[in-house]
Design a protein that fits this description.
Shape: extended
Strand content: 5-15%
Mean pLDDT: 83
Order of helices and strands: HHEEHHEEEEHEHEHHHH
CATH topology of the largest domain: Transposase Inhibitor Protein From Tn5, Chain A, domain 1
Structural class: alpha/beta
Number of strands: 8
Low-confidence stretches: 343-354
Distance between the termini: 100 Å
Number of helices: 10
CATH architecture of the largest domain: Alpha-Beta Complex
Helix content: 40-55%
Number of domains: 2
Length: about 350
């Protein structure tokens, strides 16, 4: 195995195009095995913690750190020369505490942004977006964005990247349907999807008011109403259930099981390279499981089932061999008994010579 320092240096020196080609090569293997259908894709996103701390953020205008900023606020509140413990207590209890990405950044990783995580905490983070083939569970595209990038601004880029990857990998079909949750819905998104020739299955957010289309583009109205009708159909509900299952499975396998919920790299480009290789490995494992027919993504069930299958056949082989040996022994004993001369039960009289 190569040293970790060699891998890190190679990772930095190779351009991102090399990692894209490796990712598409794995997709071409899936297409060759009939595991890349590519007709409908499900898109979802999650956040991963960046290799940057909130304690290291500085002001963009002055370059001062968070502790200097808090000490200044404490001085305005009438607390002169507080200790570090008193400063942390003041910062924890003060009201109206807000941190904006327009004013703060981390000098070690400027691409990471201050983001509210899934568990409610605030961290420096990135956003990972997956496009999964809903027929074969193959991740067709993975993209990295800043943690605060809105879903409506990234879904079309991810869909285009998935279409390009599927085409270059030799998929059986072109991408015709985009399935996402209501966080991705907007008039611009469904209109651009219609312009690209893709059907959008994206539910709308609940709104107490009725939409007004006076003075707006009639094509946008047609796209919104078509998406609404399509999402409420039986096929739309079925695709939404598939999207919820498969995209969450890809995040659970990629981020939680493989330990990528927190990245140890810095910079948007480096994180994107790492994510491409991780998803490529996940696709390779999906292809292997599909060919073998056993196993699950998050456990060693496949290895266990393979060992059980091998032991079952080995036990049968040993049993058959034992039965064959016993049958051979019985046949040999019967042959020996039939070929042996029979001895008379009466003794012959002896003639004594005189």
């Amino acid at each position: 195995m190569p040293n970790q320092s060699c891998v890190s240096k190679t990772h930095k020196r190779l351009p991102k195009e090399v990692f894209d080609e490796v990712f598409r090569f794995i997709l071409s293997v899936a297409a060759h095995k009939g595991l890349l259908w590519g007709e409908a894709i499900g898109i979802d996103s999650t956040t991963i913690q960046a290799n940057a701390s909130m304690r290291s953020i500085v002001r963009k205008d002055s370059g001062k750190g968070w502790q200097d900023y808090t000490r200044k606020l404490a001085k305005k509140a009438g607390r002169d020369d507080p200790t570090d413990d008193e400063l942390r207590q003041f910062d924890r209890n003060r009201l109206g505490k807000q941190v904006s990405n327009d004013d703060w950044e981390n000098p070690h990783d400027p691409d990471a942004t201050i983001t509210r995580m899934k568990d409610g905490t605030t961290r420096m983070a990135y956003k990972v977006e997956h496009a999964v083939d809903l027929d074969t569970d193959i991740v067709v595209s993975t993209t990295i964005h800043t943690g605060t990038a809105p879903d409506t601004a990234t879904i079309i880029d991810t869909a285009i990247d998935a279409a390009v990857n599927a085409e270059q990998a030799g998929a059986d079909n072109e991408i015709e349907a985009i399935v996402a949750d209501k966080g991705y819905h907007s008039t611009k998104v469904v209109s651009r999807a219609a312009d690209l020739g893709m059907r959008a299955y994206i539910p709308e957010r609940a709104s107490p008011k009725q939409r007004r289309w006076v003075g707006k583009d009639p094509n946008e109205k047609c796209a919104v109403y078509s998406t609404r009708r399509r999402t409420q159909s039986e096929r739309g509900k079925h695709l939404s259930r598939l999207r919820s299952e498969l995209t969450e499975r890809s995040f659970a396998d990629g981020c939680d099981t493989r330990g990528v919920r927190r990245t140890w790299l810095q910079g948007l480009l480096s994180v994107a390279k790492r994510q491409l290789m991780m998803v490529a490995a996940r696709n390779l494992s999906t292809i292997t499981r599909a060919l073998i027919g056993i196993g699950s993504p998050r456990s060693r069930q496949g290895l266990r089932a393979l060992l059980q299958l091998t032991w079952t056949h080995f036990d049968r082989l040993i049993s058959a061999f034992a039965q064959l040996v016993m049958a051979a022994c019985e046949a040999s004993s019967r042959v020996s008994n039939t070929s042996r001369p029979k001895s008379s039960s009466r003794s012959l009289p002896l003639k004594l010579s005189t």
